[in-house]
């Protein structure tokens, strides 16, 4: 094969083909085995016409600015690249094709809305069929359908579905951002009369959201907009648009709620048609998403189908996932099949979802959790029920249809989530760790449904804290560059005027526009709002994307300035009681506003053995507790990171200012929360982990602080005690401070709280609570929350030993330094990063450690053996072996990154 660049891409998503706006960024991977790139040459064809070639003396091959004129609507582009360097001049890459979408200023179609004489209650609204007719001449060369909606939609041309994207147009902050979709529908057109249809439901726009199932506040009227651009072989064109003449009627989907479920009545007579309403909505300009779409990515057959005494069938798919069921056996005409979905079975083998009910105390509201689809059969052969206007989190389904028989072979789970490209793999000699890794991967998959959510069941919201915790792990498992950029746009859209970041984005409550005292009082928390700084930084470090830093810069600074202002102007009552006047260092203690804190640490047990929920048990005490240690730690981390971002963006004055502020915050944290013996005042495992991971502890006290952490673990009987924010850093901190034996003991712990304890109780995804399923088999909370699954990054960075070198960006330089334990005799894994695929394989045999590494182009690598031996190399294979003369423990110092 000719030596040439490969994996060409642009910074945009698209269904079946990439679609972008007028300007874009180009990326490619250097030729395999290439040692360096000193320059490149670009060629492009726009609508078949060649553009002047562009050459540059540059080592840059990631996110290169589009060098030609801005693109116009619908233009088709082919481009390719070749590079030169010390290895000579490469061959040309294959051509890479993409298109410009229909740009905002060129949309001329009207917004059309369904005719609704009376708007049903949220959760019980139907899907509407909006339809138009048009004529097509002969000899069609190409046809592109551009469409979007305020609501969830599917588009059809002559009954053929356009594209493969699901749950379009996706979840965004609809008041500010709306994405369109493009599909090639050439093959669906026919000479003469044609019909185009839009199936429109509430979706994320008007549907119910969150644990309390409140209607989203983006708008009260759904609408769709569509343009079909037809090009004939003689060069003439035609455009079909939504507008006058389109009709609206209720279709066979009589109920469509994104969370609760869908009802389809295949016996329903055709409803009366009405004219659509024109331009009854206000929408933001249409743009094009940087993320890949949601798709049906996999299907799973049941591993068992069991009939209960009451006649219901329990279907077990063997894996907790996100999606829906496709059902082929609908029974005779009039048969009603009810499908309930859930994660857990009760002691009698029946489906239970009681652990997902939402309850706010004895005097507060409660919401019973439901995921229910229904279908009424028409009896026609060949029909399939597949509810694509809802999505569920489930492993089990209960199918109820009375005495009508059920064919198990006609039941399939469709796994539905954003179609992310897998980049990281891991396996080792211990099958339990492989199972843990798989569970974490499935948890992320189930929560990567257009936005990073907390769980695919009870809430399905884009909690900022969840993704802040998991983003470094997500970036090892999948290419999440576009997925993250899309979500971050919603985070920016939802930012409040005072700089606070919403707890969830897209913010269905629209706190920015609708005052809600309850939501307002719990918005602006450390560890949650810091996602606006920490997630873009992780994307830059992993992918080398400066644009993600630049486009979030204003939002980052507004967030950090809010935190600094709050630290300066608000004090926790405990400090006011200590001193009426603030002590000088308190200017940098962020304690006077709401923080979630170290959310979901292992719960204590009452005398009767029941778990004590600190929030439900005494909500006021939890709400008013001093969480200044957490707030100040994150204020330091974000200010310090902001200084680094400013340096990357060439903002020298900002870099100097935020670096100085970060040091003042760190000094204040040390004075307030750290004593001379390295003890953190909170006295919790989480407090020590955070202090050590963030670099808050001086070097001279790190060993002592780590010793105090180990002592707390020993006091807990060898169990972890961390919660939401610090669990991801627990094992790396222990290994990097010389306590790898303790880290692995926690990893292999089987009694609760522990990761393997989850697996032993049947988990196939990571639980929200450490005791998500009690010893008696009772589920207590969501069984698919990915945050605690961030532990699997330790398997990549420490067990496998693969991590970026300090200061490296986009994996230009990396280190392989396995942290060994006697119970693991081999590990191997890969990471398909921006430079190419890194492959690592190590094994212990006959008293020796052998390590082999494949180093991708334009990269450098180091292998570090436990005895201190270091091997260095560039592109190509790198390997060595050393006797195990040193104990199979040790540290790397990697977590002291600040």
UniProtKB/TrEMBL annotation:
The Alpha-L-rhamnosidase C-terminal domain, residue ranges: 801-870
Disordered as annotated region, ranges: 874-898
SUPFAM superfamilies cross-referenced by the UniProt entry: Six-hairpin glycosidases
Residue stretches making up the Alpha-L-rhamnosidase concanavalin-like domain: 307-415
GO-annotated molecular function: hydrolase activity
Residues in Bacterial alpha-L-rhamnosidase N-terminal domain copies: 139-268
Domain of life: Bacteria
Name of the featured protein: alpha-L-rhamnosidase
Species annotation: Marinactinospora rubrisoli
